[in-house]
């Protein structure tokens, strides 16, 4: 495992939530960092891998709630690195998948701060796998599209060519979809997707409280409101959703609920 030099910033993905999905490089970084600047979706079990004495500093963003400005977060990373700290910027999922990791990396480059990127398992991959929804299946699709449910301003992206996307991709995975679910569904329907197309919401993916709600595109909004599906949640549309029932989601849920997520990851301090 690599040594974490003083004065560097490592941008690491913590995966979708289950600490077992951390990479060895991420655990190694947690074992060595002087300070961990972490996001809202990084849980206590993952933070339990930080070495004794490490400072844990929250810098999470949640829609509709007061949040640190991105510029302030980037400046904080630069400030700490210039103090000679080993700075770990820990993000849910993968730092380069809708995680603003690229913005922070550019700021570090411009400031002359050395940095390393540690990929993580994105929720759109790991979360759907835990939900028993495969991203691809040769009988249904050979293409999948990922997109975000809101842009930097918190609104549905206006730069997406929805009609072209619907024609090109039989499976769509939309991150951060709950806030504008009704508008997202309306755009997909207007772009040509039929109301009967299978759809699902996966809330708190890979965690014990994970919920999977399956429906059709035409009924998913009403079903989500009735079930009070809470963010963070993934919205997936496509025939692969039907495989959720085949892969025994109830067994997966039982397995997740048995995970010891109330303390540090077992033996995580030995990973370095």
TrEMBL record:
The record's InterPro entries line, in alphabetical order, gives: 4pyrrol_Mease (IPR000878), 4pyrrol_Methylase_sf (IPR035996), 4pyrrole_Mease_sub1 (IPR014777), 4pyrrole_Mease_sub2 (IPR014776), CobA/CysG_C (IPR006366), Siro_Cobalamin_biosynth (IPR050161), Uropor_MeTrfase_CS (IPR003043)
The record's Gene3D superfamilies line, in alphabetical order, gives:
Cobalt-precorrin-4 Transmethylase, Domain 1, Methyltransferase, Cobalt-precorrin-4 Transmethylase, Domain 2
Q: Which sequence ranges are marked TM in the entry?
A: none
Record has S-adenosyl-L-methionine as a keyword: yes
UniProt cross-references to Pfam families, sorted A to Z: TP_methylase
Write down the superkingdom of origin.
Bacteria
Report the EC number(s), separated by commas if there are several: 2.1.1.107
Top EC group: transferase
- Which UniProt keyword terms apply here? Methyltransferase, Porphyrin biosynthesis, S-adenosyl-L-methionine, Transferase
Q: Where is the Tetrapyrrole methylase domain?
A: 9-220
- For this protein, what is any one GO molecular function term? uroporphyrin-III C-methyltransferase activity
Which pathway? Porphyrin-containing compound metabolism; siroheme biosynthesis; precorrin-2 from uroporphyrinogen III: step 1/1
Which biological processes are named by the entry's GO terms?
methylation
Q: Per the similarity annotation, which family is this?
A: Belongs to the precorrin methyltransferase family.
Name by which UniProt lists this protein = uroporphyrinogen-III C-methyltransferase
Q: Which organism is it from?
A: Ferrovibrio xuzhouensis
């Amino acid at each position: 495992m690599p040594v974490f030099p003083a004065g560097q910033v490592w941008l690491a993905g913590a995966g979708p939530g289950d600490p077992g999905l951390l990479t060895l490089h991420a655990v190694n970084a947690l074992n060595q960092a002087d300070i961990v600047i972490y996001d809202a979706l990084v849980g206590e079990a993952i933070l339990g891998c930080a070495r004794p004495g490490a400072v844990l500093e929250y810098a999470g963003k949640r829609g509709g709630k007061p949040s640190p400005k991105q510029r302030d977060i980037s400046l904080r990373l630069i400030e700490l690195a210039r103090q000679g700290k080993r700075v770990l910027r820990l993000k849910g999922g993968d730092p380069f998948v809708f995680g603003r990791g690229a913005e922070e990396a550019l700021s570090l480059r411009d400031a002359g701060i050395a940095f390393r990127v540690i990929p993580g398992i994105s929720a759109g991959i790991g979360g759907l796998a835990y939900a028993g929804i495969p991203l691809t299946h040769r009988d249904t699709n050979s293409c999948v599209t990922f997109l975000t449910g809101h842009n930097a301003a918190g609104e549905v992206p206006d730069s997406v060519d929805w009609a072209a996307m619907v024609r090109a991709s039989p499976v769509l995975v939309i991150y951060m979809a709950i806030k504008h679910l009704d508008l997202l569904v309306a755009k997909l329907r207007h772009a040509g997707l039929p109301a009967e197309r299978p759809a699902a919401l996966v809330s708190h993916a890979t965690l014990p409280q994970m919920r999977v709600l399956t429906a059709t595109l035409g009924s998913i909004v009403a079903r989500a409101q009735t079930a009070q599906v809470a963010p963070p949640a993934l919205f997936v549309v496509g025939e692969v959703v039907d495989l959720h029932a085949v892969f025994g989601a109830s067994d997966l849920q039982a397995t997740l609920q048995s995970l010891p997520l109330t303390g540090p990851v077992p033996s995580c301090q030995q990973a370095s």
